[in-house]
Amino acid sequence: MGEALQAAERALETGDVPVGAALYDADGSLLALTCNNREAANNITGHAEVLAINEAVRQRGDRVLADCTLVVTLEPCVMCAGAILAARVGRVIFGAWDDKAGAAGSVYDLLRDGRLPHPVPEVIAGVRESECATLLQNFFSARRENSVPLNKNPNRS
After folding, report:
1. Separation CA 132–CA 34 (nearest Å)
2. What is the pTM of this model?
3. Is 3 assigned a catalytic role?
4. 112 with 121: CB under 8 angstroms?
5. SS (H, E, C) the chain
6. 22, 52 in Cβ contact below 8 A?
7. C-alpha R_g of the chain
């Protein structure tokens, strides 16, 4: 989770929501380390989880990541849960819960939904939860104080 938190902090440089993801293979080798880049890349699918999965698939040359672990600072949303399921990620570890859009146990539980093909065999929640949540709370608090909407990146020309 430490690497994912460091990646999340990099997202602050571009005004992106500070979410970071690290994806490891079965041996614990880092395949991908990403952060949200929706604002920086003007990419609606620029969530850390999707970016990490895409990078790992490129590196391995295989779209099935069943022996891999995805570590992310925030509970995956529905879109990210879909990508996780499509890639058949074997284990997901996340930090903060997302009570508005979470899809790994808070609002929805898509990752473990047995009605869907290839549910995630292991989901671990709340790892370094306080640190992950504080990073997000501070980001949104500063946005509210400065009245900066998410789609107005101060670093983008």
Report:
1. 15
2. 0.92
3. no
4. no
5. CHHHHHHHHHHHHHCCCCCEEEEECCCCCEEEEEECCHHHHCCCCCCHHHHHHHHHHHHHCCCCCCCCEEEEEECCCHHHHHHHHHHCCCEEEEEECCCCCCCECCCCEHHHCCCCCCCCCEEECCCCHHHHHHHHHHHHHHHHHHCCCCCCCCCCC
6. yes
7. 15
Q: What tokens were used for 56?
A: 């790992």
* Given the residues 3, 13, 49, 75, the one annotated as active site: 49
How many residues would you count in the chain?
157
pLDDT of residue 145: 87
| Rounded Cα gap, residues 134 and 154, in angstroms | 22
d(CA 82, CA 11): 22
Tens place of pLDDT per residue across the chain (157 aa)? 999 999 999 999 999 999 999 999 999 999 999 999 999 999 999 999 999 999 999 999 999 999 999 999 999 999 999 999 999 999 999 999 999 999 999 999 999 999 999 999 999 999 999 999 999 999 999 988 887 666 555 544 4
Which residue type, as a one-letter code, is found at position 115? Answer: R
